[in-house]
Design a protein that fits this description.
It contains 13 helices and 10 strands. The chain is an alpha/beta fold. Strands 1, 2, 3, 4, 5, 6, 7, 8, 9 and 10 form a 10-stranded mixed sheet that branches. 35% of the residues lie in helices and 15% in strands. Strand 7, helix 11 and strand 8 form a beta-alpha-beta unit. Bound molecules: iron/sulfur cluster. Iron/sulfur cluster binds next to loops.
Length: 330
């Protein structure tokens, strides 16, 4: 299946969309390199580019997902496991890269590492720059599907410009309470915004479609990170997904929560999740008859903790997600 961005490039539509996004105003003029809440200017900030083998099996496949970790973020999660690159904007300034260089990195992931896809991690604050990089990458030979791997705190208007460009959406559905979203992620309107964004993503790509090897070609996978003390609102969020979005939605339940960054000093967030909390969510999956997706084993937390200051690869093991991610229903 040829990704839609190739036809959009040849019709001129991809260029039109890139220009439309570049002309759109956020509260500062980023084309003049002013920066706002996300501390990002005219150029994308690319912290790390690597083949990632620990994503969901349909994303990592056998050759890895071509992951592009963008620096900075539009949220401020106190427990962010990527805090070294998401919350350290002064240092991230040195990782600015022009869009053509980013396009070349994408080709490196596709051609030299053989990755199944290009996986933009934390892309929400740099959609115009990413679209421009895709415009640059198509004539260089880019042909693998694009994955949009976000917190779910996305602008629906920006997502509409990605219709037909992104093949696989991989958003989080992090909270069911704006109170906790505001307190722990500085995202006071998270619930409505993320649900609206996920609806738009699903409208564009629908249910997950995989090839004969089980590798994703198109569709939506919603991640849900279990937080301690019920802070993620798992019951409410999973119920919303199956009742309001679709009973066939693909869900990835993540159990890897670790109290890092500021979380060790916050009593409600200062521990990993318990066996009982994990089992409660497993029961919910059964009760809600969710059949599509994966669940992380408990105890997987350390396996998934990246270190962006390590030489080479941010993940210590090149483990396959198969080891610790189980299908919701076999
Ligand atoms: S949305 Fe993700 S990357 Fe951004 S601060 Fe929260 S956990 Fe970190």
């Amino acid at each position: 299946m040829e990704p839609g961005y190739i036809a959009l490039y040849h019709s001129g539509e991809l260029e039109r969309r890139a220009q439309a996004l570049e002309a759109r105003e956020c509260r500062v003029n980023r084309l003049q390199n002013e920066t706002g809440y996300c501390h990002s200017g005219r150029l994308p900030i690319v912290s790390t580019v690597c083949a990632h083998h620990g994503e969901e099996p349909a994303i990592s496949g056998t050759r890895g997902s071509g992951t592009v970790f963008l620096g900075n973020c539009n949220m401020r999660c106190v427990y962010c496991q990527n805090y070294q690159i998401s919350q350290n904007w002064e240092k991230q300034k040195s990782n600015e890269m022009d869009c053509h260089a980013l396009a070349e990195r994408m080709l490196y992931l596709q051609d030299e590492l053989g990755c199944h896809n290009i996986n933009f991690v934390s892309p929400s604050h740099c959609v115009p720059q990413l679209l421009r990089a895709v415009v640059e990458a198509v004539p260089l030979g880019l042909r693998v599907p694009l994955v949009y791997n976000s917190s779910g705190y996305d602008s629906t208007a920006s997502l509409k410009e990605l219709d037909g460009v992104i093949s696989i959406y991989l958003p989080d559905l992090r909270y069911a309470s704006d109170r906790w979203a505001k307190k722990f992620s500085h995202a006071p309107d998270y619930v409505a915004r993320a649900r609206q964004a996920i609806r738009e993503m699903y409208r564009q790509v629908g249910d997950l479609m995989v090839d004969e090897s089980g590798v994703a070609q198109k569709g939506l996978i919603v991640r849900h990170l279990i937080l301690p003390n019920g802070l993620a609102g798992s019951e409410e969020s999973l119920t919303w997904l199956v009742r309001e979005l679709s009973p066939t939605v693909t869900v990835s339940v993540m159990s890897q929560y670790m109290p890092v960054h500021r979380a060790p000093r916050i009593p409600l967030l200062a521990r990993k999740i318990t066996v009982a909390e994990h089992e409660t969510v497993l029961r919910l999956l059964t009760d809600l008859e969710i059949e599509n997706g994966w669940v992380q084993e408990l105890g997987a937390a350390e396996e998934y903790l990246p270190d962006f200051e390590r030489e080479g690869h941010p993940f210590s093991t090149a483990n396959s997600g198969d080891n610790i991610l189980h299908k919701v229903k076999d």
